[in-house]
């Protein structure tokens, strides 16, 4: 199917479902013209992103297209240039269809945005899509795009991916440039892709990754080929599962059951799956959250003094917690991070991948997620540790609970081994069909 025809289908999906899902804040008014231009350019050569229709979380700058940060402060902000990741997508032949909804300033896990719409899950109109990249996850699940770029500070790509039944990668910190993206915490922020298949995630990752001199956190490490890693198969991989941490009483039994099934599939593919212990992992979240809150409060210091009433109430409350974070708490978190990194380095000497559920529950109903901070804590219990370590972490769909909502598993590898988790996730999808299911209302012609 031609790109212009697929673009029409995505625009139709936005028109039909966005009034309920609130997945998109803005739509590219020139999307059809851009599709025609990309098709014409594609006839003159192969482009690695040709045919991809992409939504962008609305904290990533787009030239000439409104970028709000999900806030009232930037409601009319129109950047004069693209973020590097957007430039790379355009140069690769991808079509930008619009800007996806997010938790205000990317600082919460539910995407109940008081300024741009209370976002909903692509599989259930009354459930939250997760956050803070909730619109990214929902827009992919609902067929409004092929791929979305989100951002992840403590779990904000992986949580929406798991709750919306799509794949999502938090890359190695520094692999993808953050230039042109509004920060929460420079030490932990990263941009990454969400898509219906791991192969599409990998394709976009390799387009947007690479050094950028404008980003002080950007790394110059070569980007490894995920297809080469895929060609090596699964039989050489040593996989560790911290069962005591992630499969205990605090994890929904159906989530645990789906993960056990997924581990059985990986064993059948030839992987060496074993039980491991991670002493520090259960404490990572409680140390990461105060650091993120303090860093975010520093970003918004002037706004907190001059116009605090412009923030949504839940984000304002969380920023004030950050403003009042003590130096002892902040330094204690940094000392914890040093211990955690040492433990993780030692663990990865004998392992290639660590696996947990992405999220310990399925998507909460919006009426049950009114306490944003408590919901965010619940959703990010298994994602925070890997954000603190700066390692790559991929969420992959592994089935559905009895309530019809998706479940995801999280694949984690050492820094700069993004290709390892992408290859393993793609092998898992080749052996299963969970990622082929579509929610009601999905445009069937998109496949």
Automatic annotation (TrEMBL):
Q: Carries keyword Cell membrane? A: no
Q: What is this protein called?
A: Aspartyl-tRNA(Asn)/glutamyl-tRNA(Gln) amidotransferase subunit A
* Amidase domain segment(s): 7-422
* UniProt keyword list: Transferase
Instruction: Please give the Gene3D superfamilies that the UniProt record associates with this protein.
Output: Amidase signature (AS) domain
**GO molecular function terms listed in the Swiss-Prot or TrEMBL record:** transferase activity
């Amino acid at each position: 199917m031609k790109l212009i025809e697929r673009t029409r289908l995505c625009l139709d999906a936005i028109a039909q479902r966005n009034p309920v899902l609130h997945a998109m804040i803005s739509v590219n008014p020139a999307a059809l013209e851009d599709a025609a231009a990309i098709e014409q350019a594609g006839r003159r050569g192969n482009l690695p992103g040709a045919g991809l229709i992409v939504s962008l979380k609305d904290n990533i700058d787009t030239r000439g297209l409104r970028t709000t940060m999900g806030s009232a402060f930037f409601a009319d902000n129109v950047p004069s240039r693209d973020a590097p990741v957007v430039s790379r997508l355009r140069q690769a032949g991808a079509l930008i269809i619009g800007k996806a909804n997010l938790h205000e300033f990317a600082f919460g896990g539910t995407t109940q945005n008081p300024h741009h719409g209370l976002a909903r899950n692509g599989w259930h109109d009354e459930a939250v899509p997760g956050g803070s990249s909730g619109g990214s996850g929902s827009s992919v699940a609902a067929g409004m795009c092929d791929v979305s770029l989100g951002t992840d500070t403590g779990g904000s790509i992986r949580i929406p991916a798991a709750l919306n039944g799509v794949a999502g990668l938090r890359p190695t910190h520094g692999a993808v440039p953050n230039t042109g993206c509004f920060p929460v915490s420079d030490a932990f922020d990263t941009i990454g892709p969400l898509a219906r298949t791991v192969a599409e995630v990998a394709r976009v990752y390799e387009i947007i990754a690479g050094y950028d001199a404008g980003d002080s956190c950007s790394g110059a490490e070569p980007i490894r080929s995920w297809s080469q890693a895929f060609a090596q198969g699964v039989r050489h991989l040593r996989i560790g599962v911290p069962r005591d941490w992630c499969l205990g009483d605090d994890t929904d039994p159906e989530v645990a059951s789906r993960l056990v099934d997924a581990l059985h599939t990986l064993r059948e593919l030839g992987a060496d799956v074993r039980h491991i212990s991670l002493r520090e992992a259960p404490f990572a979240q409680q140390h990461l959250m105060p650091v993120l809150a303090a860093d975010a409060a520093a970003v918004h210091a002037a706004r907190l003094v001059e116009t605090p009433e412009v923030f949504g109430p839940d984000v304002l409350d969380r920023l004030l917690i950050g403003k009042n974070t003590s130096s002892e708490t902040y330094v204690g978190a940094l000392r914890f991070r040093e211990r955690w990194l040492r433990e993780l380095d030692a663990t990865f000497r004998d392992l290639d991948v660590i696996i947990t559920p992405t999220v310990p529950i399925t998507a909460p109903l919006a009426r049950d997620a009114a306490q944003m901070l408590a919901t965010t804590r619940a959703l990010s219990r298994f994602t925070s540790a890997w954000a603190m370590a700066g390692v790559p972490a991929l969420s992959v769909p592994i089935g559905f609970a009895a309530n019809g909502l998706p479940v995801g598993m999280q694949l984690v590898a050492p820094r700069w081994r993004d290709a390892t988790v992408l290859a393993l996730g793609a092998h898992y999808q080749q052996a299963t069909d969970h990622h082929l299911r579509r929610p009601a209302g999905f445009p069937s012609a998109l496949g």
